[in-house]
Amino acid sequence: MPKFQFLSQWLAATLIGFTLLGCTPQSTPDITVSDGYVRATFPMAKTAAVYFTIHNASGVDVRLARVSVDSAVASDAQMHTSEMQNDMMQMRQIKEGITINAHDIVEFMPGGYHVMLIGLANGLEAGEDVELTLHLEQHEPIVLILPVKSSKGEGNHHH
């Protein structure tokens, strides 16, 4: 019986090792996200803004293709940018994705790139958390748990 037990343990360890090897990203870029938060809204708001910083510590460019949010929070999540047009600040949806160059950062912040949560199920209050997923090309999705923070001292940024 000990011989059978040894063989079954060896086989299990070997299979686990091969499984882990198959799941280990061999050339996955080192992507991290920091300073993320969702701006709190009023109770009947239908949109909310999301901000964060993406760090690409790898030697290759990475494309953020899209973002998504749980449908219990909002019906859609879209990447947007703010641009000056005809002396007015305009918001534009970014459908083509955003490239994060090798060894660089991209900031999603007020007045620049940001994510809009559209069709909120409920207003978002400070102290809550929102799960946002970043979908990168050639990379596993990154799931963020972002705190909702008060927008005191900042102008309302809802479109």
Task: Output the keywords.
single chain, 159 residues, mainly beta, Immunoglobulin-like, ten-stranded mixed beta sheet, disordered C terminus
Gist?
The chain is mostly beta strands and 159 residues long. It is built from one helix and ten strands. Helix content is 14%, strand content 48%.
Q: What features would you describe in this structure?
A:
The structure is a single chain. This protein has one domain (31-149): Immunoglobulin-like (Sandwich). It is globular and about 45 Å long. The protein is built from 1 helix and 10 strands; from the N terminus they run αββββββββββ. Helix content is 14%, strand content 48%. A hairpin with a 5-residue loop joins strand 9 and strand 10. The protein is mainly β and 159 residues long. Residues 14-28 and 154-159 have low confidence and may be disordered. Strands 1, 2, 3, 4, 5, 6, 7, 8, 9 and 10 form a 10-stranded mixed beta sheet that branches. It comes from Alteromonas profundi. This is Copper chaperone PCu(A)C. It holds the Pfam family PCuAC.
Residues in helices, as a percent range: 10-25%
Using the 3D structure, state the CATH architecture: Sandwich
pLDDT < 50 stretches: 14-28, 154-159
- The first-to-last residue Cα distance is 70 Å
In percent terms, what proportion of residues is strand?
Answer: over 45%
Major sheet description? 10 strands, mixed
Taking all Cα atoms into account, the compactness measure Rg is 21 Å
User: Remind me, CATH topology?
Assistant: Immunoglobulin-like
Principal-axis shape equals globular
